[in-house]
Amino acid sequence: MRLSAGDTNAKKACALEVCDAYENQGFLQIVGHSVSKDLQARFLEAIASFFALPLEEKQKISQELSPCYRGYERVGGQKLDELDNDASVDQKEGFSIRPERPLGRFLAGPNQWPGPNLPGMNSFKSTYMEYFDAVHALSKDMFRLIALSLNLDEGYFDEFAADPDGICLCRSHHYPPTPPDSTDRTRGIGAHTDFGALTLLLQDNVGGLEVLHKPTGTWHSVPPLEGSYVCNIGDLMQRWTNDRYRSTMHRVISPLSSKDRYSCAFFNEGMRDKVVEALPGCVPYGEKPKHGPIRVEDHQIK
Ligand SMILES: O=C(O)CCC(=O)C(=O)O
Ligand SMILES: [Fe+2]
């Protein structure tokens, strides 16, 4: 889907594509958007330099030291698989930031950054923040299209998506090279749905992301398209649309390769005090909503 298409008719055409993609697959790819290729390239380079630091340096800003889930997560620090209890831990390391707010409310607090004097780290923070702001802006554009796709006012989600106190997470990942003897279960990350409202994923050209086609139970790869964003609906938005839009299972099985894979997921979970309940037009006439109302923050804590 080409996002920066301009006039009203083009916007409407985009909104129809969004509706079709989210009612059926829950995933789409965006090209022609507002984040420059130059910034994407600088960002991917910056995260590669960070992950190349010695483990002991990265562990100094371990997420385990943060009361508000920010910082570094070593390989094996997460297990996302929701389909298989015996699955191995995820084969990736990560680094997360969230909006910088005073400690207090759930997930609020300071970020943790690597020391600027470490090799390659002098502009890491500024590049990461520049990227965060750019992809946050893109998520607001996407929420506008989603509003149009649901026949709502274009600005319906503006306040929700732009709230400076909102719950956002920008987590970058490094998937180490996979030796020829690795099995599917020890590569990448397990099958899961995303939790919140909307995810924007930047992936490099290595590949490995797969999406489940539920009706046939088959997995389909999401081919890397240079400069694009994979944009999917999370559980909160599925609930908000009364299950009309789908939060779809996905996973990463890194291809057998001597290459490192880098990606970054930006999650916009929106305004923490917003009460989410079935959107106008999503409950068929004469039916009851499938889910009761829930506050965004309570959905996060669940
Ligand atoms: O790295 C990827 O391609 C996918 C990451 C992902 O699904 C997630 O972080 O929720
Ligand atoms: Fe995900």
Architecture blueprint of SSEs:
Layout: H1 8-24, E1 27-30, H2 37-51, H3 55-59, E2 71-73, E3 93-97, H4 124-149, H5 158-162, E4 167-175, E5 189-192, E6 198-203, E7 209-213, E8 218-221, E9 229-233, H6 235-240, E10 250-252, E11 261-270, E12 275-276, E13 294-295, H7 296-301
Antiparallel strand pairs: 1-9, 2-3, 3-4, 4-11, 5-10, 6-9, 6-11, 7-8, 7-10, 12-13
Helix pairs in contact: 1-4, 2-4
Protein name: Putative gibberellin 20 oxidase
InterPro entries: DIOX_N (IPR026992), IPNS-like_FE2OG_OXY (IPR044861), IPNS-like_sf (IPR027443), Iron_ascorbate_oxido_reductase (IPR050231), Oxoglu/Fe-dep_dioxygenase_dom (IPR005123)
GO molecular function, one term: metal ion binding
Overview of this protein structure:
The protein is built from 7 helices and 13 strands. It is an alpha+beta fold. The chain has a single domain, classed as B-lactam Antibiotic, Isopenicillin N Synthase, Chain (Jelly Rolls, Sandwich), CATH 2.60.120.330. Strands 1-9-6-11-4-3-2 form a 7-stranded antiparallel sheet. Strands 5-10-7-8 form a 4-stranded antiparallel sheet, with no helix packed on it. A two-stranded antiparallel sheet has the order 12-13. Helix 1 (8-24) packs across helix 4 (124-149) and helix 2 (37-51) packs across helix 4 (124-149). The two termini are 34 Å apart. The structure holds 2-oxoglutaric acid and fe (ii) ion (FE2). The site of fe (ii) ion has 3 residues, from loops. GO terms for molecular function: metal ion binding; oxidoreductase activity.
Number of strands: 13
Structural class: alpha+beta
What is the overall shape? globular
Overall mean confidence score, pLDDT? 92
The arrangement of helices and strands along the chain is: HEHHEEHHEEEEEEHEEEEH
How many DSSP H or I helices?
A: 7
Q: What fraction strand?
A: 15-25%
Bound compounds: 2-oxoglutaric acid, fe (ii) ion
Question: What characterizes the major β-sheet?
Answer: 7 strands, antiparallel
Spell out the CATH superfamily. Answer: B-lactam Antibiotic, Isopenicillin N Synthase, Chain
Please give the domain count: 1
Strand order of the largest sheet: 1-9-6-11-4-3-2
Q: Which residue ranges are poorly predicted, with pLDDT under 50 across at least 5 consecutive positions?
A: none
Give the distance, in angstroms, between the N- and C-terminal Cα atoms: 34 Å
CATH architecture: Sandwich
Helical fraction equals 25-40%
Q: Using only CA atoms, what is the Rg?
A: 19 Å
Which CATH class applies here? Mainly Beta
CATH topology: Jelly Rolls
